[in-house]
Amino acid sequence: MKKKRSQQESGYRSERCLEIISIRLYDPADRMKIMDVLERTAGRSPAVRFSLFRNAAVEGDWAIHMWRPPVSREGCKSQEALCLSELLKELGLVHHGVWLPAGKEDQP
Length: 108
Hints:
This protein has a domain at 30-99. Helix content is 25%, strand content 29%.
């Protein structure tokens, strides 16, 4: 039987925040520009783990997930994500949110 990896072993430790930047491209052909902007940002942010996703049904919809250490104010957007969001606004409509791990206090 396979041993289930813990959150810490998989790199998604519970004290990390998740920032999600969603973009709907004005022109779906601009998808390579998203990758260029992401590569430049990721190269300057070694403490942040980036993942890029595309929508299965909508050609121009993309999401960038950024796992990062928490910043000083809980729920605060990181400087890397704010810069990335600004750069992406030239390519489409952008939504940026911060997600925190649910704790025992969040259980019903």
